[in-house]
């Protein structure tokens, strides 16, 4: 089955685990239920995901303390662990509260500086990965910045970095310009290209005509958008071009999410077998 847009019939499909996070966030989070694995398989079949891939994804997520199993007779139901609720809540906030356009920047930057010896190279790699995930860009060797106040205490605590790291809040002063910091620390064109790719896929009269129904479109839409905003460092709008594509992309997402919700929820209610937990 092809799920590409009207002009793109070769768009790559999201990974099953990414789709699973979207599914769980929409149909399981805060509902007090576990969902039967067989009905999850039925939903994912609409997306062209095989039964084997769904079972493998559920098993991996259970092993990673994201899902918990509940048995009723011969049926196995999957519910959320507290860790999964945390992860899904973070995704919900990024989509519906933080958004894609930062119009509330107060002019400050969170600055993280570190000096980690070569003997702890893997620790240095982990810290860099976590900083990128939390919206930081590399300004110069060992110095990372992110707009606004960013709480990195959880990241630092999990890595046990001790005195190797310094965290500050700062403002740019002449001759340094805030716009120059953005250009040095972040690949603005790459960020914009991701939003343009989203618009090419979804800003169409009939997005994804190859999808079987609006439940499939809803899950693909939410998955694409969440992956996009998770990669976005949320740079201040005032430091970006006036035609920044995130603005139109966010409007497109919100309009389609509203359009797909009623029919998708009706289809899901007819398919999903849930167990109160």
TrEMBL record:
InterPro entries: ArsR-like_HTH (IPR011991), PaaX-like_central (IPR048846), PaaX-like_N (IPR012906), PaaX_C (IPR013225), PaaX_trns_reg (IPR011965), WH-like_DNA-bd_sf (IPR036388), WH_DNA-bd_sf (IPR036390). Residues 15-82 form the Transcriptional repressor PaaX-like N-terminal domain. Residues 186-264 form the Transcriptional repressor PaaX-like C-terminal domain. Residues 103-182 form the Transcriptional repressor PaaX-like central Cas2-like domain. Pfam families: PaaX, PaaX_C, PaaX_M. This is PaaX family transcriptional regulator C-terminal domain-containing protein.
